Amino acid sequence: MQRGKRTMSFHFGQAEKEQSQVSVEARGDKEDHKETAPAVPKILTWDAAPFANEGSSGEQASEDDDFIPEPSMTTHDDKVIDFTQKQEEKREGEAPFWDDGNRVNPPKLPPKGRKRVIKDVIGVVPWNLVTAIVSAIVVGLGLGFVVYKMVVTESVGTASEGGENLDAALAAAVEAGLPTWHVDVVQGAAFDTVEQGQPVVDKVKQGGLPATLFSKSGESSFLFVGVAPDKAGARSLSAMIEEKGQDTYVKTYTIEGGRSNTLDTEAITWFLQAHGLYKELLQETSRRLVDEEGASVQADDVIKKMEGTLKDLTAARDRSLSKLPEKASEQALNMHNALVKGLHAFASFESGQEKQAMWQAQQSLLDALYAYASMVEVLAEA
Question: What are the domain boundaries of the chain?
Fold first, then answer.
């Protein structure tokens, strides 16, 4: 083989940051090597068998060159993988975004960076706290709904129980018979007979005070000049009457009711309603006489309520009292008429604020008290 010049191309590693060409000249037995890097190069191209001896055929290479592979005669650069370049491209993708001032078509974040933003946000969220808050809201709503149901159910049950209790109380009162009246009265005098006491009654009335003579067969007669729902009210009323020159004495007066063979359920219910109206009218009248400031501030509502009760009593009066003995029915009618006059006097006081109207209401309350006592006495003798 003739002497010839052969060329070999190498690629050096990343440590050198550059590519170098190594030329090897083989002339006879003398070989010259020019190398620029100590690192082991990567062979890119090779156009002939290297280091061929002059007297040998080109098919047999030197044993010293066995470590160098013999590439194909055709070079395929697209099949060569440069791992150094791959690593460089990977590092460039991790580089920070550089703002070049272009706001029209700004560059986007690399895909790897965009994915990391979502992961970073998910990682920053305090999921334990979020879970605790959501659990607290769910538990709170559940408890609120349960409490609401309990309150509504309890309210409905209370209303139902209230109606049942009212019906039960009315049934028990009807079963007990006529109501028993308890009042505190202001007594002005006592007489052995009605004839002795009647002139005093007329004189007291002429002085503008109420007066009613209470008497029972075979007993003394008592002059009552005032009535109140309790002892404190009776004492205050007594002091007002004594200022007008009338001696007084405060005591409790009771009219015992109870069962009667001549009364049916309808009649007893009527008397129970009448007793309720009497107590309410007595309460309001006493307050206005002894302490006007302590009176009810809703007088109109009170009057309307009492007028409604009185209207019901008037409508059921004849039917409810039809089975009573004649004398007992007469006294029951007297009681009803006294309640009508008392409510009328109370309403007159509220409209004109004339205190004399309250004394007239007191007179009507004493008359109603006497009529009921007389009716009970008649029924007891029947």
Answer: 1-105, 126-176, 178-381
